[in-house]
Amino acid sequence: MLTSQRRALITARLASDGQLVAKALADELDLSEDTIRRDLRDMAAEGLLQRVHGGALPLQPPLPDFPARQTMAGTAKRDLGKMAAGLIRPGQLVFLDGGTTNAEIARALPRNLAVTIATHSPTIAAELVRHAADVILIGGRLYKHSMVATGATTLAAIEAMRPDIFFMGVTALHPAHGLSTGDFEEAAIKRAIAAQAAETFVCATNEKFGATSPHRIMPVERLAGLIVQQDIDEQTLAPYRDMALQMIAA
Protein backbone atom coordinates (compact mmCIF):
# COMPACT_ATOMS: atom_id res chain seq x y z
CA MET A 1 0.00 0.00 0.00
CA LEU A 2 1.33 3.42 -0.96
CA THR A 3 1.99 6.06 1.67
CA SER A 4 -0.74 8.30 0.24
CA GLN A 5 -3.23 5.43 0.47
CA ARG A 6 -2.29 4.72 4.10
CA ARG A 7 -2.65 8.37 5.01
CA ALA A 8 -6.05 8.59 3.35
CA LEU A 9 -7.16 5.49 5.29
CA ILE A 10 -5.87 6.93 8.56
CA THR A 11 -7.79 10.15 7.95
CA ALA A 12 -10.97 8.24 7.13
CA ARG A 13 -10.67 6.03 10.24
CA LEU A 14 -10.19 9.01 12.52
CA ALA A 15 -13.26 10.65 11.01
CA SER A 16 -15.43 7.53 11.36
CA ASP A 17 -14.13 6.02 14.63
CA GLY A 18 -12.82 9.05 16.49
CA GLN A 19 -9.52 7.31 17.26
CA LEU A 20 -6.94 4.99 15.76
CA VAL A 21 -4.82 2.27 17.38
CA ALA A 22 -1.52 1.84 15.55
CA LYS A 23 -1.10 -1.88 16.28
CA ALA A 24 -4.64 -2.74 15.22
CA LEU A 25 -4.28 -0.93 11.90
CA ALA A 26 -0.85 -2.47 11.29
CA ASP A 27 -2.28 -5.96 11.88
CA GLU A 28 -5.25 -5.24 9.62
CA LEU A 29 -3.01 -4.08 6.76
CA ASP A 30 -0.31 -6.69 7.40
CA LEU A 31 2.29 -3.96 7.88
CA SER A 32 4.84 -3.27 10.60
CA GLU A 33 3.68 -1.13 13.49
CA ASP A 34 6.71 1.09 12.87
CA THR A 35 5.33 1.96 9.43
CA ILE A 36 2.00 3.10 10.86
CA ARG A 37 3.70 4.98 13.69
CA ARG A 38 5.89 6.79 11.15
CA ASP A 39 2.79 7.79 9.18
CA LEU A 40 1.16 9.09 12.35
CA ARG A 41 4.29 11.02 13.34
CA ASP A 42 4.55 12.66 9.92
CA MET A 43 0.84 13.53 9.83
CA ALA A 44 1.01 14.99 13.33
CA ALA A 45 3.97 17.16 12.29
CA GLU A 46 1.82 18.49 9.42
CA GLY A 47 -1.03 19.30 11.80
CA LEU A 48 -3.34 16.60 10.43
CA LEU A 49 -3.94 14.63 13.65
CA GLN A 50 -2.98 14.41 17.31
CA ARG A 51 -0.55 11.71 18.43
CA VAL A 52 -1.39 9.85 21.65
CA HIS A 53 0.16 6.81 23.28
CA GLY A 54 -0.52 3.83 21.01
CA GLY A 55 -2.15 5.70 18.18
CA ALA A 56 -3.88 8.95 17.23
CA LEU A 57 -6.96 11.12 17.72
CA PRO A 58 -8.56 13.71 15.43
CA LEU A 59 -7.05 17.16 15.72
CA GLN A 60 -9.22 19.48 17.76
CA PRO A 61 -9.84 22.93 16.22
CA PRO A 62 -8.53 25.90 18.22
CA LEU A 63 -10.85 26.88 21.05
CA PRO A 64 -12.67 30.17 20.38
CA ASP A 65 -11.87 33.02 22.73
CA PHE A 66 -14.09 33.76 25.73
CA PRO A 67 -16.44 36.31 24.07
CA ALA A 68 -17.02 33.95 21.14
CA ARG A 69 -17.74 31.01 23.45
CA GLN A 70 -20.43 33.03 25.22
CA THR A 71 -22.56 32.84 22.05
CA MET A 72 -22.14 29.09 21.49
CA ALA A 73 -24.71 26.43 22.53
CA GLY A 74 -26.50 28.97 24.70
CA THR A 75 -29.67 26.99 25.45
CA ALA A 76 -27.78 23.78 26.22
CA LYS A 77 -25.39 25.57 28.56
CA ARG A 78 -28.28 27.26 30.39
CA ASP A 79 -29.95 23.88 30.91
CA LEU A 80 -26.72 22.35 32.21
CA GLY A 81 -26.15 25.33 34.48
CA LYS A 82 -29.62 25.07 36.02
CA MET A 83 -29.19 21.37 36.69
CA ALA A 84 -25.77 21.90 38.27
CA ALA A 85 -27.07 24.74 40.46
CA GLY A 86 -29.68 22.32 41.81
CA LEU A 87 -26.92 20.20 43.33
CA ILE A 88 -25.73 23.04 45.57
CA ARG A 89 -26.94 23.05 49.19
CA PRO A 90 -27.02 25.85 51.79
CA GLY A 91 -23.85 26.16 53.85
CA GLN A 92 -21.56 24.54 51.30
CA LEU A 93 -18.25 25.83 50.01
CA VAL A 94 -18.58 25.56 46.24
CA PHE A 95 -15.73 26.17 43.79
CA LEU A 96 -16.80 27.41 40.37
CA ASP A 97 -14.24 27.10 37.60
CA GLY A 98 -14.19 29.65 34.81
CA GLY A 99 -16.05 29.20 31.54
CA THR A 100 -19.34 30.03 29.92
CA THR A 101 -21.22 26.98 31.23
CA ASN A 102 -20.13 27.67 34.80
CA ALA A 103 -21.30 31.26 34.36
CA GLU A 104 -24.74 29.75 33.76
CA ILE A 105 -24.46 27.90 37.09
CA ALA A 106 -23.84 31.23 38.83
CA ARG A 107 -26.82 32.82 37.05
CA ALA A 108 -29.07 29.92 38.02
CA LEU A 109 -28.31 30.07 41.74
CA PRO A 110 -31.18 31.38 43.89
CA ARG A 111 -30.22 34.89 44.93
CA ASN A 112 -31.01 34.23 48.58
CA LEU A 113 -29.04 30.97 48.84
CA ALA A 114 -26.71 31.00 51.87
CA VAL A 115 -23.58 29.49 50.33
CA THR A 116 -19.93 30.39 49.84
CA ILE A 117 -18.68 30.47 46.26
CA ALA A 118 -14.94 30.39 45.60
CA THR A 119 -13.66 31.12 42.11
CA HIS A 120 -10.51 32.20 40.33
CA SER A 121 -12.57 33.79 37.57
CA PRO A 122 -13.47 37.49 37.79
CA THR A 123 -16.30 36.97 35.31
CA ILE A 124 -17.87 34.31 37.56
CA ALA A 125 -17.46 36.55 40.61
CA ALA A 126 -19.18 39.41 38.76
CA GLU A 127 -22.22 37.20 38.11
CA LEU A 128 -22.70 36.87 41.88
CA VAL A 129 -22.63 40.54 42.85
CA ARG A 130 -26.40 40.66 43.55
CA HIS A 131 -26.52 37.27 45.31
CA ALA A 132 -26.55 36.66 49.06
CA ALA A 133 -23.69 34.19 48.62
CA ASP A 134 -20.31 35.00 50.11
CA VAL A 135 -17.81 35.19 47.25
CA ILE A 136 -14.11 34.39 47.55
CA LEU A 137 -12.25 35.66 44.49
CA ILE A 138 -8.81 34.07 44.15
CA GLY A 139 -6.13 36.15 42.47
CA GLY A 140 -3.09 35.39 40.37
CA ARG A 141 -1.90 35.90 36.83
CA LEU A 142 -4.91 36.39 34.57
CA TYR A 143 -5.12 33.92 31.69
CA LYS A 144 -7.20 36.17 29.44
CA HIS A 145 -8.29 33.46 27.00
CA SER A 146 -10.41 31.78 29.69
CA MET A 147 -10.62 34.70 32.14
CA VAL A 148 -9.18 32.75 35.08
CA ALA A 149 -6.22 33.28 37.41
CA THR A 150 -3.22 30.96 37.23
CA GLY A 151 0.18 30.68 38.85
CA ALA A 152 1.74 30.19 42.29
CA THR A 153 -0.52 32.70 44.09
CA THR A 154 -3.60 30.91 42.79
CA LEU A 155 -2.29 27.48 43.80
CA ALA A 156 -1.42 28.65 47.31
CA ALA A 157 -4.97 29.91 47.90
CA ILE A 158 -6.49 26.70 46.51
CA GLU A 159 -4.39 24.54 48.83
CA ALA A 160 -5.95 26.28 51.84
CA MET A 161 -9.49 25.30 50.79
CA ARG A 162 -11.60 22.16 51.08
CA PRO A 163 -14.58 22.70 48.75
CA ASP A 164 -17.62 20.49 49.16
CA ILE A 165 -18.14 20.50 45.41
CA PHE A 166 -16.13 21.69 42.41
CA PHE A 167 -17.68 22.37 39.02
CA MET A 168 -14.79 21.94 36.60
CA GLY A 169 -14.75 23.35 33.10
CA VAL A 170 -13.09 21.28 30.37
CA THR A 171 -12.73 21.57 26.62
CA ALA A 172 -12.75 17.81 26.01
CA LEU A 173 -13.32 14.47 27.71
CA HIS A 174 -12.39 11.01 26.50
CA PRO A 175 -12.89 7.68 28.31
CA ALA A 176 -9.28 6.61 27.74
CA HIS A 177 -7.43 9.93 27.59
CA GLY A 178 -9.29 11.72 30.35
CA LEU A 179 -10.32 15.32 30.90
CA SER A 180 -8.29 17.92 29.05
CA THR A 181 -8.01 21.61 28.24
CA GLY A 182 -6.03 23.89 25.97
CA ASP A 183 -3.51 25.45 28.37
CA PHE A 184 -0.81 23.80 30.51
CA GLU A 185 -1.11 26.19 33.48
CA GLU A 186 -4.90 26.10 33.44
CA ALA A 187 -4.85 22.30 33.50
CA ALA A 188 -2.62 22.37 36.59
CA ILE A 189 -5.02 24.72 38.41
CA LYS A 190 -8.01 22.53 37.62
CA ARG A 191 -6.14 19.45 38.82
CA ALA A 192 -5.23 21.19 42.09
CA ILE A 193 -8.82 22.25 42.81
CA ALA A 194 -10.13 18.73 42.13
CA ALA A 195 -7.54 17.31 44.54
CA GLN A 196 -8.94 19.53 47.32
CA ALA A 197 -12.65 19.06 46.60
CA ALA A 198 -14.87 16.38 48.12
CA GLU A 199 -16.66 15.98 44.77
CA THR A 200 -15.96 17.18 41.26
CA PHE A 201 -18.60 17.46 38.53
CA VAL A 202 -18.29 18.45 34.88
CA CYS A 203 -21.07 19.99 32.80
CA ALA A 204 -20.40 18.76 29.27
CA THR A 205 -22.09 19.71 26.02
CA ASN A 206 -22.28 16.94 23.42
CA GLU A 207 -19.36 18.03 21.24
CA LYS A 208 -16.84 17.60 24.08
CA PHE A 209 -17.34 13.84 24.34
CA GLY A 210 -14.74 11.57 22.75
CA ALA A 211 -12.40 14.50 22.10
CA THR A 212 -9.02 15.54 23.50
CA SER A 213 -7.23 18.83 24.01
CA PRO A 214 -3.45 19.23 24.35
CA HIS A 215 -3.18 19.27 28.16
CA ARG A 216 -4.55 16.45 30.32
CA ILE A 217 -6.15 17.34 33.64
CA MET A 218 -6.97 13.96 35.16
CA PRO A 219 -8.77 10.66 34.42
CA VAL A 220 -12.53 10.84 33.94
CA GLU A 221 -13.09 8.20 36.62
CA ARG A 222 -11.93 10.65 39.31
CA LEU A 223 -15.13 12.64 38.80
CA ALA A 224 -18.15 12.23 41.01
CA GLY A 225 -20.38 12.72 37.99
CA LEU A 226 -21.24 14.28 34.65
CA ILE A 227 -24.08 16.68 33.85
CA VAL A 228 -25.06 16.08 30.24
CA GLN A 229 -27.60 17.13 27.64
CA GLN A 230 -30.86 15.20 27.36
CA ASP A 231 -30.31 14.41 23.68
CA ILE A 232 -26.89 12.76 24.00
CA ASP A 233 -26.94 9.24 22.63
CA GLU A 234 -26.53 6.27 24.97
CA GLN A 235 -23.63 4.83 22.97
CA THR A 236 -21.59 7.93 23.73
CA LEU A 237 -22.34 7.67 27.45
CA ALA A 238 -21.77 3.91 27.76
CA PRO A 239 -18.03 3.99 28.61
CA TYR A 240 -18.65 6.66 31.26
CA ARG A 241 -21.48 4.66 32.82
CA ASP A 242 -19.04 1.74 33.08
CA MET A 243 -16.92 3.94 35.36
CA ALA A 244 -19.86 4.13 37.79
CA LEU A 245 -20.08 7.91 37.45
CA GLN A 246 -23.27 9.68 38.45
CA MET A 247 -25.05 10.76 35.25
CA ILE A 248 -27.41 13.73 35.42
CA ALA A 249 -29.32 14.71 32.28
CA ALA A 250 -30.37 18.34 31.97
Automatic annotation (TrEMBL):
InterPro entries: Carb_Metab_HTH_regulators, DeoR-like_C, DeoR_HTH, NagB/RpiA_transferase-like, Tscrpt_reg_HTH_DeoR_CS, WH-like_DNA-bd_sf, WH_DNA-bd_sf. Residues 3-58 form the HTH deoR-type domain. Keywords: DNA-binding, Repressor, Transcription, Transcription regulation. Gene3D superfamilies: 3.40.50.1360, Winged helix-like DNA-binding domain superfamily/Winged helix DNA-binding domain. Pfam families: DeoRC, HTH_DeoR. GO terms for molecular function: DNA binding; DNA-binding transcription factor activity. This is DeoR family transcriptional regulator.
